């Protein structure tokens, strides 16, 4: 007998460039759509912003020449999305700035992450890197066209609309 709880997992190594950060955001939205959360839902929009910020930080603050960063998405039991962005600079852990002056041009990204997620933090990524992770609550799964296509067919004919 199969369990009702399923784990969805996606991971991708990306170049530590602005292009890699953009691709991380696009891949996250595409993957969530394939799992059943369309790009227009609040969870997908929040995830896109969080991935964009964490990937941008990995490129800006966690870059080591010749090394990329890793994006991992996992949805367990269809109620929480965990976003992990790993980079090789464990010595540069993010600190959420609680206040920013009106003239500051940077420093608000992690405030956005804090506002959009249930929780976030960092963990070591051996041997010398770090993982910045964030968790977003997911609404009940909605089957989209791409998610429906990925579902195995039962072989039954579709019911006619009355």
What can be said about this structure in brief?
Helix content is 32%, strand content 25%. It is built from four helices and five strands.
Give an overview in words.
The chain has 162 residues and is of the alpha+beta class. The protein is 32% helix and 25% strand. Strands 1-2-3-5-4 form a five-stranded antiparallel sheet, with helices on one face. A hairpin with a 3-residue loop joins strand 2 (69-76) and strand 3. Helix 1 (18-35) runs antiparallel to helix 2 and helix 2 (42-61) packs antiparallel against helix 3 (109-116). The chain is globular.
- What Rg do the Cα atoms give? 18 Å
Overall average pLDDT? 82
Percent of residues in helices comes to 25-40%
Helix count? 4
Strand order of the largest sheet: 1-2-3-5-4
Total strands: the figure is: 5
Distance between the termini: 34 Å
- The proportion of strand residues reads 15-25%
What class, by secondary structure content? Answer: alpha+beta
Order of helices and strands: EHHEEHEEH
**Shape category:** globular
Largest sheet: 5 strands, antiparallel
Residue windows where pLDDT falls under 50 for at least 5 positions:
150-162
